[in-house]
Amino acid sequence: MSDSPDTVEPPVDRFCDLVMKGGITSGVVYPKAISRLAREYRFRSIGGTSAGAIAAAVTAAAEYRRRNTGNRDGFDILSGLPAQLQADVPGTGGTKLLSLFQPQPGTRRLFSVLVTALNRGGTWHRIFAIVWGLMKAYWMATLASLAIAVLARWLGLDGVGVVLLLLVALVGGVGLLLYRDVTGRVVANGYGLCTGLTADPEHPALTPWLHELIQRTAGIETGEPLTFGQLWRAPGAPQVWSELQNRKPPRSIDLQMFSTNLGHGRPYIFPLAEDNGNATRRSFRTASGSSSRPRSWAATCPGMCWTG
User: Does the chain have fewer CB atoms within 10 Å around its N or its C terminus?
Assistant: First the structure.
């Protein structure tokens, strides 16, 4: 192995901890920063929320690979993420990052409105973009409103009356369809616009893409997913840290991710906390979760897959 800065590994007893906040901008910045830190430190406790949780999971996978193989190939993959996410995807008119968020058919109109309003500078520009996006997304209501206005003008209604009628028809028609989508199709879609699973067979969505990224970063080729248990049992944990941890067994790589459960109205930290050596009670239905997991993950890990 050469002694260039890109290949020299830090001493086996030099560790640091990472905590990463959410936000798309932060999520783009983290990979390069983490890859640079990995030249000076090994990682022990890694935490994050939202986009930071994704970065934390991939970082843990890269550290797991380094602990087991002695190379930093996982961190090289992590370092290349910003360029990959910013690259244009042929045939989509957008970037790789945007292609990861794929709405289901019932929520596609609402998603197009959201995309239209993205990155608009100023409040009024954003409001105009939303109005224009609604008119395009619900084009049938827009055309019907225009037809009603033209008919009213042909029947003799004055200009002011035609404009007012057009506005009322637009608000009523678009508003009705918007209400049906929000209260019906969004609810049926699990209260979200995207499930995270692939709707476009030519481009993977966020969940399968992230699953494949974590597996590749960890250097796992067996098809079985990387688990918290594998991280906890990774070789190379500092002896002093293992003795100080109030856990049995101690965690070599301690990954913790923060998320909010809208149904419960409270936050959770994963993996779920342990109480007196017994895992906190958690109930789930395999059938309910199978619709939001990659097939390879569901096939090898039908339960929660925390410590396998």
Answer: N
The beta-carbon contacts of 208-215 under 8 Å, at least 24 apart in sequence, are 208/294, 209/100, 210/54, 210/57, 211/294, 211/296, 211/297, 213/58, 213/77, 214/57, 214/58, 214/61, 215/61
Give me the residue label for tokens 């225009």.
146
pLDDT band at 283 (very low <50, low <70, confident <90, very high): low
Measured distance CA(216)–CA(65) in Å, rounded:
10
Spatial distance between the Cα atoms of 300 and 222, rounded to a whole number of angstroms: 10
**pLDDT given for residue 243 in this prediction:** 58
Q: What is the average per-residue pLDDT within 78-106?
A: 89
State residue 235 phi and psi, 5-degree precision: -70, 165
Tell me the per-residue pLDDT of 135-174, one tens digit each, with 9 for 90 and over. Answer: 999 999 999 999 999 999 999 999 999 999 999 999 999 9
* CA 31 – CA 257 distance, rounded (Å): 17
**Pair 134, 113: CB distance under 8 Å:** yes
The secondary structure of the chain in percent helix, strand, coil, rounded to multiples of 5, reads: 50, 10, 35
Both structure tokens of 161? 């009356």
Pairing of strands 274-275, 278-279: antiparallel
Summarize pLDDT for 19-65 with one digit per residue, the tens.
998 876 666 788 999 999 999 999 999 999 988 899 999 999 999 99
Strand-strand pairing, 94-95 and 88-89: antiparallel
d(CA 47, CA 55): 9
Sheet holding 42-49, edge to edge: 15-20, 42-49, 254-261, 266-270
CA 146 to chain centre: 39
